[in-house]
Amino acid sequence: GGITAEEAKKSSHLNIVGMVGSIDNDFCGTDMTIGTDSALHRIMEIVDAITTTAQSHQRTFVLEVMGRHCGYLALITALACGADWVFIPESPPEDNWEDHLCRRLTE
C-alpha cells in the first residue's frame, strides 16, 4: 500500500538517484547515457578489425549498429571512421538514394 509517516522518517537519510542505462543514447535531458560510450568503443574496435580486410579484398563492407529509433551510434561511428554512407532514423534517405549510392560505389 502506502508508506507511513513513521516509515518515511526512518528512511529519510536515503538518497536515491535513478540512472539510465541504454546504449541508444535516446534519453532526453542527458548528454550521454550509461553504456553509450562503451558501445561506441566496441564498435570502433570492430571497424578497426574489418577495415584491413575490406581494403585488402577491395570490398565494401556494410556495418549495422544497434540504436533502435536513435541514430547516435551510427552517426558517431560514421564520423569517427570516415564512412561514405550512413542511414539513421532521424534523417530517412531521400528518393533514389540507391542510384546515388551506386554512383559513389562506382567512383
Automatic annotation (TrEMBL):
Xref: SUPFAM superfamilies: Phosphofructokinase
Keyword Amino-acid biosynthesis among record annotations: no
The UniProt record lists the keyword Nucleus: no
Residue intervals of the Phosphofructokinase domain: 7-103
Record-level GO cellular component terms: 6-phosphofructokinase complex; membrane
Pathway: Carbohydrate degradation; glycolysis; D-glyceraldehyde 3-phosphate and glycerone phosphate from D-glucose: step 3/4
Highest taxon in the source lineage: Eukaryota
Known cofactor(s): Mg(2+)
Matches recorded under InterPro entries: ATP_PFK, Phosphofructokinase_dom, PKF_sf
Gene3D superfamilies attached to this UniProt entry: Phosphofructokinase domain (3.40.50.460)
Record-linked Pfam families: PFK
UniProt catalytic activity: beta-D-fructose 6-phosphate + ATP = beta-D-fructose 1,6-bisphosphate + ADP + H(+)
Keywords: Cytoplasm, Glycolysis, Kinase, Magnesium, Metal-binding, Transferase
Single GO molecular function: metal ion binding
Span of the signal peptide: none
One GO BP annotation of this record: fructose 6-phosphate metabolic process
Name under which the protein is recorded: PFKAM protein
Naturally occurring in which organism (per UniProt): Chunga burmeisteri
